[in-house]
């Protein structure tokens, strides 16, 4: 059994594990894939104090840092069920996809999130080569170029406003005939000369030259006509889905499926904490996930010293 079991091995999980292990308590990590979303990332230029790195390198650095400590790391396994402790000092149980069960006095949930994809030809091929999901991260890579934002919800319109400051021109493609973003954002976007919004546009293909994105193809859903736009980047903003389906009923989730945490990372369940993109913490970024991991780990440690008599 563990004192702290961290479910998820992204930046939040790695930070949680290091903070817990440094307290000299029995710490475990279980992760389907160590590194999480960072493993899918190319350039990282906003991890403060490291001017430039890339995903695979940051994953190796995270792994090495965790290995400095006595942490029991299990990868290639997926948690499928959580049974929270019934009283303070009791054990919570995590069930894995291989049937094994792990017990721990405190649990830190850091299972992250995944970007909803368009599922069109070229999207995977050009991921990181013009297809992007995070404007805060990759916006500056498209300075002075033309880009599209897919999705007219709050994140899409926010992304368009943000990108309009950096890039030459932004085309927003919205599938339906209404923009679901807040009125104040829509007004702001419409006031910017280098943003064009196209409604009822279904993106059908990401077009590239084999190396990088050169454009996209969409169908006008009203006329049925197909159109091509030349551009260098496509920001897909059709939703970020937390990896929390397996937690329904075990901890309280927001209407978007995010784990509800307080300022110490405590969830609705006894001894269960949460950190990173899987939670209600605003703004999903590496540095924020790491900070949240540290918070949740210190929160868990506080819980442990208050709830056990040994
Ligand atoms: P994740 O990184 O999503 O990690 C989740 C972990 O949980 C993984 O180990 C996963 O395998 C595991 N897991 C999930 N479900 C289960 C389960 N049921 N059982 C066991 N394990 C499970 N942020 C920046 O700050 N700068 C950038 O430049 C940047 N670029 C990005 C580029 C891309 C393409 C993407 C997708 C994201 C980018 N981000 C960037 C965002 C950043 O990667 C995330 O905010 C960060 O990784 C969140 O960390 P996390 O630990 O909360 O979750």
Automatic annotation (TrEMBL):
KW Oxidoreductase (keyword) present: yes
Note on cofactor: Binds 1 FAD per subunit.
One GO CC term on file: cytosol
BP GO terms, sorted: response to reactive oxygen species
List of residues binding NAD(+): 146-160
Disulfide bonds: 134-137
Cofactor(s) listed: FAD
Domain named FAD/NAD(P)-binding: residues: 2-293
Superkingdom, natural source: Bacteria
This protein's UniProt keywords: Disulfide bond, FAD, Flavoprotein, NAD, NADP, Oxidoreductase, Redox-active center
A molecular function GO annotation: oxidoreductase activity, acting on a sulfur group of donors, NAD(P) as acceptor
Record keyword Oxidoreductase present: yes
UniProt: FAD binding residues: 3-18, 267-277
Subunit structure: Homodimer.
Assigned protein family: Belongs to the class-II pyridine nucleotide-disulfide oxidoreductase family.
Function: Serves to protect the cell against DNA damage by alkyl hydroperoxides. It can use either NADH or NADPH as electron donor for direct reduction of redox dyes or of alkyl hydroperoxides when combined with the AhpC protein.
Protein name, entry field: Alkyl hydroperoxide reductase subunit F
Organism: Neptunomonas marina
């Amino acid at each position: 059994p563990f004192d702290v079991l961290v479910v998820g091995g992204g930046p939040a999980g790695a930070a949680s594990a290091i903070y817990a292990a440094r307290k000299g308590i029995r710490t475990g990590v279980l992760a389907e894939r160590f590194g999480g979303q960072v493993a899918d990332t190319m350039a990282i230029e906003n991890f403060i104090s490291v001017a430039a790195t890339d995903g695979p390198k940051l994953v190796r650095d995270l792994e090495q840092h965790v290995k400095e400590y006595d942490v029991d790391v299990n990868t290639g396994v997926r948690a499928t069920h959580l049974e929270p402790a019934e009283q303070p000092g009791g054990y919570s149980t995590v069930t894995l996809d291989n049937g094994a069960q792990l017990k721990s006095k405190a649990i830190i949930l850091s299972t992250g999130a995944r970007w909803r994809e368009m599922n069109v030809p070229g999207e995977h091929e050009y991921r990181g080569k013009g297809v992007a999901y995070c404007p805060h991260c990759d916006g500056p890579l498209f300075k002075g170029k033309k880009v599209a934002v897919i999705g007219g919800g709050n994140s899409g319109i926010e992304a368009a406003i943000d990108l309009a400051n950096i890039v030459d021109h932004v085309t927003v493609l919205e599938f339906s005939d209404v923009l679901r973003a807040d009125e104040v954002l829509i007004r702001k976007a419409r006031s910017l000369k280098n943003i064009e919004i196209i409604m009822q546009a279904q993106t059908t293909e990401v077009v590239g030259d084999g190396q990088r994105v050169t454009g996209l193809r969409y169908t006008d859903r009203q006329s049925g006509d197909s159109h091509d736009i030349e551009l260098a980047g496509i920001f897909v903003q059709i939703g970020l889905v937390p990896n929390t389906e397996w937690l329904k009923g075990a901890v309280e989730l927001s209407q978007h499926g995010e784990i509800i945490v307080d300022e110490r990372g405590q969830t609705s369940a006894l001894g269960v904490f949460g950190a990173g993109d899987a939670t209600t913490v605003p703004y999903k970024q590496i540095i924020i996930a790491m900070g949240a991991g540290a918070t949740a780990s210190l929160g868990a440690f506080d819980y442990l010293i208050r709830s056990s008599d040994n």
